[in-house]
Amino acid sequence: MTTLGRGATGAAVKALQSKLLALGFDPGGIDGKFGVKTERAVRAFQASRQLEVDGQAGRLTLAAFGQSGFDLPKASATARSTPQATTVGDPGQLGPHAVRHSVIDLPLGNGKTTRADVYTPVGVPSSPPVLHLHGLLQSPGRTAGTAHHYASWGLTTVVPTLPHGSGAPGANSQALKAAVDWAMTKPAALGGATLDTSRGVAVSGHSFGALTALLTAAGQKNVGAVVALDPADLMGQGLAQGSRIAAPTAFVVGRAEIWNQFGNGYRIYDRVPGSQNELLRVAGAGHMDFQNGSTRGPKNKANAVAMRFATAFLLRHVGGQTQYAAFTQDGAQVRRAKAAGELR
Fold it and tell me: 249-280 burial by CB neighbour count: b if 16+ within 10 A, else e?
């Protein structure tokens, strides 16, 4: 079967563009020319169908269109015939989706709510939800880059205003457990997106936000994955509750600083049971390197390494995209990064 990719032209490309547009993925016009915008639309479609994101309309991608009632005409002689790619997109860089921002009142149980920023991937009909939490003395806006990054990879990301302030992880986690339960029961009420909660709700955070994420997951059966970006413990709460976390949990740690001088990430990691937990130390990275990404991409090399690992872990565990295992601790991408001295 012919693979349609960058540089292809003709009726097959025109039909592909028409279907992309009909499904909500803007190819930049119906001109029969497979350019940058058409490739971006194909990537968005692939991510929405949990296919390998390579920007080429090969056998599996065309089959997915066929399941949507779409048949391509015979390819133009100028369409390039190439093997189906075996690689996936790099989750350390911004993903294929445009991102929409909105604000909601997030229910916390007992009739209480908190303001929350929602980052929704455009063109994704059903999206796994992520609850992302900021650190001590920070605000939702200071972690908007990470939320935007996650959403660009097809993950609807909610950043709540912490109801008890940033210095109360225990109290915040109790309220956020109720928010997780609410997300499980409201699949079409979050930022205009339909949520895919078939694998649970992910929780993620940095510093005290990471501790809050861990405490939220403790004993909460609806949490499907946890990402703890250089967690800072408080009075041993993380150590005490780690054994109650059942979801796959990823830890990213940097060098010891005032915020994490006691090796909090390592110590809590040792307490979390299960065989799918992973820990990554980013060589030379400081605590604040993991605070936030950017809507224009990672702010530095350490941030890119952390975002690659965290995003792939979420895609793998709440997105069901097992091909992203290559970017997590046991994958070939991580082994190559270690060989290059980027990781330890």
Answer: bbbbbbeeeebbeeebbeebbeebeeeebbbb
